[in-house]
From TrEMBL:
Species for this entry: Elsinoe ampelina
PANTHER family assigned to the protein according to its UniProt record, in alphabetical order: FAD-BINDING DOMAIN-CONTAINING PROTEIN-RELATED, FAD-DEPENDENT MONOOXYGENASE ASQG-RELATED
Protein name, as recorded: FAD-binding domain-containing protein
The keyword Zinc is annotated on this UniProt entry: no
Keyword Oxidoreductase: yes
Pfam families: FAD_binding_3
Length: 501
């Protein structure tokens, strides 16, 4: 028996963030040998503030066995408001609350860092995760790969999965290897597909009584060249301002120093997040904050050789909480918003899809090894299953951010006046899309009710879909007409729309 036949199929995952830890859960549940390499000295997420977990990923977390604990440590959203640039209320919505009702489960909004902690603490075996393991290079052997870390340690395996974010080391390693082995394997456009037009200042502040906020509410504020978000959980306020910045392609690293953040607060400090809270007030009460570029883009090819990418290393969406409802029409799968954290949700879906394929191919023989041609077929199957859905989120999230930050007159009109009229349609389309999300096909769910009405929407017939499109078009036309008439009666508030009537 050869050495290859003696060793099991093994996966090397790079990056122990939300996606990398989700991969470890999936692989452990499948009984697939692996290691997760994390460059930092501990498993922690410091990028961004709050995160919403939508029903399809809550179902996956239930399969991981961590959903019950998450529900025990979070409070469901009880109030959702969209606001004009002056902080007054544009619309009181029920997106998150409706999802909770449709899928018969409490909504989840919490700190991204807490999400990472739940994923890590809930791992069946934490020994699969190696910290202080920064990748130096990936070498190809006759039948696999060798991942060498900067401290000289080596991890061998059959494939390497890059879940190391938008500034992925593994993506670059993949490109470098393809350039030597098969230059045509990676589209040249992929090497310059990411760009930035927006920056984001994120923070977490103490939820004090003077803020007059509920224990769990969401606020999204439109603005001229910026848009704000404010979410709460007991004792904490999670906030962000997304602002228009210079265009960079490829992206350049942003100065995230305290001085740079102070300069932004000086510029945007009087921007309202509600009718009584301004950014500078939350800044003074912050416990932590960060300044980031909001990268956008998507690769045409997510794999090459024994490399495959999952999450932000392959597709990166802009960040927005509210999608103007006019964008959620007649698409299957629907083109939906990248609501807060929906990029993370879609990335976790990708991890599940890939692991379903790996489990299918190895469940009868854990010592099975694959040629690069066989792996290419499997990775092509994975990308094909994910590409349309991921691209829809990536493209539409950018449009939503631009509408909420008033980049065009049309966007201002649609997000401020038409969107509220289409809320029932958006909620149904979102429910349908969430219901179609993947789950692990080799382990059962544990606590959720998959007979809830929301899950049934993913099974709707094509005829129903066509009927919904006709209703959507009629509703959109009616909404525009009614909105126009209403606008004629609010000339005194026309400044909000940014136009003169």
């Amino acid at each position: 028996m050869s050495q290859d036949q003696k060793r099991p199929f093994r996966v090397v995952v790079v990056g122990a963030g939300i996606v990398g830890l989700s991969l470890s859960h999936c692989l452990q549940l499948a009984g697939i040998d692996h290691v997760v390499l994390e460059k930092h000295d501990k498993v922690v997420s410091v990028q961004g503030a709050a995160l919403i977990i939508w029903p399809q990923v809550a179902r996956i977390f239930d399969q991981f066995g961590i959903l019950k604990r998450i529900h025990e440590t979070t409070v469901p959203v009880c109030r959702e408001r969209r606001r004009w640039p002056d902080g007054t209320i544009n619309h009181t919505g029920k997106t998150v609350q409706t999802m909770s009702k449709n899928f018969d489960m409490p909504s989840i909004i919490f700190d991204r860092q807490r999400c990472v902690e739940h994923l890590y603490d809930g791992l069946p075996d934490k020994s699969y995760v190696r910290t202080s393991a920064k990748v130096d290079r990936v070498e190809h052997t006759e039948s696999g790969i060798r991942v060498v870390t900067t401290d000289g340690r080596v991890e061998e395996g059959d494939i390497v999965i890059g879940s190391d974010g938008v500034h992925s080391t593994i993506r670059q390693q993949m490109w470098d290897h393809a350039a030597k082995d098969d230059p045509s394997a990676v589209p040249e456009t992929d090497k310059n597909c990411f760009s930035t037009d927006f920056g984001g200042l994120f923070g977490v502040s103490d939820l004090t009584e003077d803020l007059k906020l509920l224990d769990s509410e969401s606020n999204v504020t439109f603005g001229h060249g910026h848009t704000e978000m404010l979410f709460t959980q007991p004792g904490k306020a999670y906030w962000a301002i997304i602002f228009k910045d210079d265009h960079h392609k490829p992206p350049v690293r942003r100065d995230g120093s305290e001085q740079a953040m102070e300069a932004l607060v000086e510029q945007y400090g009087d921007v309202p997040l509600t009718d009584h809270i301004k950014l500078k007030q939350l800044w003074k009460q912050r416990s932590r904050a960060g300044l980031l570029n909001i990268e956008e883009g998507m690769l045409e090819k997510w794999h090459s050789g024994r490399f495959v990418l999952v999450g932000d290393s392959a597709h990166k969406a802009s960040l927005t909480y509210h999608l103007p409802l006019c964008l959620v029409i007649h698409t299957d799968p629907p083109k939906m918003t990248a609501d807060l954290g929906l990029g993370a949700n879609i990335a976790i879906e990708g991890a599940v899809t890939l692991c379903n394929i790996l489990n299918r191919e190895t469940k009868s023989d854990k010592h099975r090894h694959f040629t690069t041609a066989e792996l290419s077929a499997l990775f092509t199957e994975y990308q094909a299953a994910r590409y349309v859905r991921a691209k829809a989120f990536t493209d539409l999230s950018g449009k939503a951010t631009r509408m909420n930050s008033y980049q065009t007159y049309f966007g201002r009109f649609m997000t401020g006046y038409v969107a509220p009229w289409l809320a029932p349609i958006q909620l149904r389309k979102l429910s349908e899309a969430f219901a179609k999300g993947p789950k692990l096909d080799y382990v059962p769910t544990r606590t959720i009710n998959e007979d809830a009405p929301g899950w049934k929407l993913g099974e709707k017939k094509e005829a129903e879909g066509a009927s919904a499109v006709k209703y959507l078009v009629a509703a959109a036309a009616g909404g525009v007409a009614v909105s126009y008439l209403l606008m004629q009666r609010v000339e005194g508030r026309a400044w909000r729309f940014g136009m003169t009537f």
